[in-house]
Each structure stands twice: as C-alpha cells, then as structure tokens.
Amino acid sequence: MKFVEELVVEEFLPTVRSMLATDLRERGFTQREVADALGISQSAVSKYAHGDVATSERFSEDERVQSLVERIGEGLSTGDMSRVQALIELEVLIRRLENGDSLAERHREVMPELREYDASFDVHDPESGARTTEQVRSSVRRGLRILRNTSAFASLVPNVGSNLVECLPEATDVEDVAGVPGRIFDVRGTATVPSDPEFGVSEHVAAVLLSAREAGAPVRGAVNIRYDSALVDGLRDAGYPTVEFDADREDSGGDATRETIVEAVRAADPGSPFVLYQTGGFGIEPITYVLADDAPAAARVVRDQT
Questions:
Q1: Among residues 94, 116, 138, which one ends one of the domains?
Q2: How many CA atoms lie within 13 A of 303 on its CB side?
Q3: Peptide linkage before 273 cis (omega within 30 of 0)
Q4: Fewest CB within 10 angstroms: 57, 218, 243, 277, which?
Q5: Across the strands, what pairs with 287?
Q6: Of 64, 86, 116, which residue is a domain's last?
Q7: Alpha carbon distance 253, 278 (integer Å)
Q8: How far apart are the C-alpha atoms of 291 and 206, rounded to whole Å?
Q9: How far from the centroid of its chain's Cα atoms is residue 44's Cα?
Q10: Which residues of the chain are under the pLDDT cut of 70?
Q11: Which residue pairs, CB below 8 angstroms and at least 24 apart, start in 187-196?
C-alpha cells in the first residue's frame, strides 16, 4: 500500500527543492541563503547542487511546476513573496496534481488497483465514489465473516446458492450492488465464499434488493437462504415483518418477479429489517430473503435465528 503523500515526499518535493535551489543559486543566493529560504540544511543544498538527490522528470518537465518554481524564485529573491506564500502556492499545486493529474497518475502506477476508478477522482475527497464503493465492499466482507462464523448457515444455503449483497446509497441497477461472484455454496457442511465481493456480479439477489427499494423499503443489504416455514415463523415471532410474494405469477413482459415484489413490499410497508419469501412454483425453488440496513445487519438476523 502506497500513499500519495509518500510520492509527494519521495518524488515531488526533492524535484521541486532541487529546481528551487538551482533557481536561487542562479539568482545569486549563497548556499546558506538557499538553505534558509527552503528550510533545509546546507548539506542538503550541496547534495541538490551536485545532483546527489534523485529527481523526477515527470515533475521537472511539467510546465506548471517550472512556472511556479520561477515565480517563487523571483518572489523570494525580490522579497515580494514570503516563505509562507511560497508554501501555500506549492500546496495548491500539489493538491491540483493529486486530483486526477500527474501525481494521481503516478499513484495509479504504484497502486494499479486504483485504475478501476475514474481518473478524475480525488483520493482525499470524503464523498468520493471510490471511497463509497470500497466502504460497501468492506461492509459485505464484514457480513460474510458473520455468516462464515455461523455454523448453521451452511445448512440454510439453497440449491441455487446464497449471496450476500449491499448496494450503493443511490443504487439504480445491479451494477450498483456488490455481492459474491459465483454465489455462496454449501461444500460438505461449510459455507464456501469463492472470491472477494465485486459490483455487478449478483443478478438475482441484487434484483430482489432493488425491487424492495423501488417499493420504498429503506434497505441496502440482503441475503437469500432456503425457505422453511418454521424458519419464517421463527423470524416472524422474533419481531421481523414477513412479506410473501408470488414467484410463479405469469407476465407477458417477463418481469413478474420484480412487479410482485414491488407490489407486496409496497402494500406491507415493512421497514427494516424484514423478511421476504416465496414458497416456490413450477421449476422455481422456494427462497427466503432477509433485507436490512446493510449486509452485516442482514447477516446478523440470520445468525441470531439459527
């Protein structure tokens, strides 16, 4: 894991300091005056002068960096610019380069995982989409840990497999829902999670979650388990609202499941968490869904009822 701040310290600042040291020396500054202006030691200035400090052409050849170095050098030499102003100007440029620019691109080179996000995202932005998506993935991981540590969960996995999902706050389609690629299966009494959560990999459970949200349910997480009337009764007795829908309703548009879920949930107005289920149909396995505020909350409902 490499922080963009490390790249600033290791690559950007040595380059800019070297450029500034050269600029100030050419303006007649002594080694001591350069050291005082830049807030570094004379020995450091000497190393810059002799090329003993590694610099980056990516930044030294950037016209914006060159222009700012020249402006700071001139300002410091004439006294028109204070060290504080020089610092602020450099900080502003650093933030600009970190936000979808050359520092951000360099960050992607050393952290290739960042390339999946839009090039304009700001790694420091607390409201960035990247941060939100990673928080959702993390939430699904926490929920999966709860399920894996629930010894009875494997016995609740239906024949079609289970999935635990969570959606983004403003989710509109399955691409906005994170889940387990390939689903969770019971392998010799152990719930097996094949790989790390990803977005857009769950069609069925994600669609159920989105349908419930379309009906107004305040939920972002869901897990499917096998249908068992005693289990549904137990969940109802524990205080969780239960909503049944007809999975076998015919519809010429091919969207019967979504419509029946929306109708059933809208009529029940269950809040969160709640239990949604269907008792099967021709070629359709009966399934129970637990929907909650997020993936860990849905997983805890399952854990507490087994």
A1: 116
A2: 14
A3: yes
A4: 57
A5: 226, 278
A6: 116
A7: 20
A8: 11
A9: 40
A10: 118-128, 249-256
A11: 189/154, 189/155, 190/154, 191/147, 191/148, 191/150, 191/153, 191/154, 191/157, 191/162, 193/144, 193/148, 196/137, 196/141
DSSP letter string, 4-39: HHHHIIIIIHHHHHHHHHHHHHHTT--HHHHHHHHT
Query: 294 Cβ partners below 8 Å, 6+ apart?
Result: 139, 143, 166, 220, 221
Angle subtended at Cα 257 by Cα 243 and Cα 274, rounded to the nearest 5 degrees:
25
Write out pLDDT tens, residues 70-115: 999 999 998 888 888 888 899 999 988 988 889 988 998 888 888 7
Q: Which residue has the tokens 């005693």?
A: 230
Over residues 248-262, the pLDDT tens digits come to 765 444 466 889 999
Q: What share of the chain is helix, strand, coil (3-state, %, to 5)?
A: 50, 15, 35
* C-alpha–C-alpha distance, residues 216 and 291, integer Å: 13
Helix ranges, the chain (H): 4-7, 13-26, 31-38, 42-49, 57-60, 63-78, 83-98, 102-110, 129-148, 204-214, 229-237, 256-268, 295-304
Answer for the pair 98, 4: CB distance below 8 angstroms, yes or no.
yes
Residues pairing with 145 in the sheet? none
Residue span of the structural domain in which 225 resides: 129-304
Cα–Cα distance for residue pair 102/123, rounded to 1 Å: 13
Query: Going by C-beta distance under 8 Å and a sequence separation of 6 or more, which residues neighbour residue 223?
Result: 143, 147, 162, 163, 164, 165, 205, 289, 290, 295, 298, 299, 302
Residue 222 domain-assigned (yes or no): yes
Q: In this structure, are 148 and 260 located in the same domain?
A: yes
- Tell me the C-alpha to C-alpha distance, in Å, between residue 7 and each of 11, 48, 61, 106, 128: 5, 18, 17, 8, 21
**What would the two tokens of residue 271 be?**
């809040």
The widest CA-to-CA distance across the chain, in whole angstroms, is: 89
